[in-house]
Predict the structure.
Amino acid sequence: MSVQERKQRERAERERLIVATARELAEQQGWDAVTTRRLAERIEYSQPVLYSHFRGKREIIGAVALEGAADMAAAVRAAARTADGPRARVTALARAYLDFAARNPAVYDAMFQLDGGLAFAQEDTPEPLKDAFAALLESLGEVAGDGVHPGLFTEVFWAALHGLATLTRAGRLPPEETERRTQLLVDRLAVL
Amino acid sequence: MSVQERKQRERAERERLIVATARELAEQQGWDAVTTRRLAERIEYSQPVLYSHFRGKREIIGAVALEGAADMAAAVRAAARTADGPRARVTALARAYLDFAARNPAVYDAMFQLDGGLAFAQEDTPEPLKDAFAALLESLGEVAGDGVHPGLFTEVFWAALHGLATLTRAGRLPPEETERRTQLLVDRLAVL
DNA sequence: CTCGCTTGTCTAGCGGTGCTAGGATCGAGC
DNA sequence: GCTCGATCCTAGCACCGCTAGACAAGCGAG
């Protein structure tokens, strides 16, 4: 059995390599540059090898998105942990979210902009996505206000953050004012 | 001169045909289906004709986006006009915005999701885009609240709407609750 | 230790993409 | 009626995602 185990380990290792390389390449040169040929060359295997791990390019994007969701959940929780009180927590969360999107644009695209073939807000939603939402809910739920469903409030707050993140990164909103916009959002939406 | 004028007219007419066909095709089958070959076939010309009007596919997307921006500005203004009082106006505006995004997904993508090579929030931003933002500002500026810059407030409100629109359409948010989310957003963000 | 077979990988290629060079055609102006 | 320039199309380039089929490596059985 040891031989098979080793092979399985190597296979899993190579799969991680593919995802990490795709993420790196996308972050360096944008997702347009992530072609199956270039990706195969970087991992020093031929193209068809990719298809023995993933059904297609879409699934590779999906894998990067899941990895990114886990990272984002961790970043948001870490930020919330360092803050005292609901208001500071929400502010820290918002900053962490926007910061993550700004620093990892390709990963953020994989999560929300591109088609990674992932299901959302459904039963078969992958665990990392549900957990990322849960990370938001933990801090945002406590400022939803009376009579407002915490989940619904989190959705709205999240949507606002998502809008700010994408519009800023697309050059639709000048980035200098990000902090003021964040403050306004927290001041108005959160019930403190 | 009459001959040249006729030719110019026909050329302009054909350009409109290209943009309208691209929009129609995108709305029917998604932007992935809008290839230069299919587009050329639909307008009953050969591919290179497209390139005598536009620098490339990106510019065609940009043209659809500009057309969409004008439509959206009109839709938003029309909705705001029918409502009495600031609060009703803002609610109507929000509904009209989300409705436009839901009813014209391909156009909305051209405006905000895809790369149409358009500049935003800059001097050389095309007029229709500036005007669409102005249409939002007209109704939203009056509920910004004291001491809050109307432009900044509009940016935040717009970002929230954009987030709701994209996340909903991408299946990230269940569409049944759209109205409740809209209400929450208006209640909290607008100062009435 | 050798042989056969499974497993894994690669080469080569398909149909499609955006885009363009260069030749054919057509019609305006003399 | 002829010339010549504007206009358009045919053909093709390099690249894309994806896959069939040839080939080699390494395992287990005899």
About this structure: The CA atoms of residues 1 and 170 of chain A lie 52 Å apart.
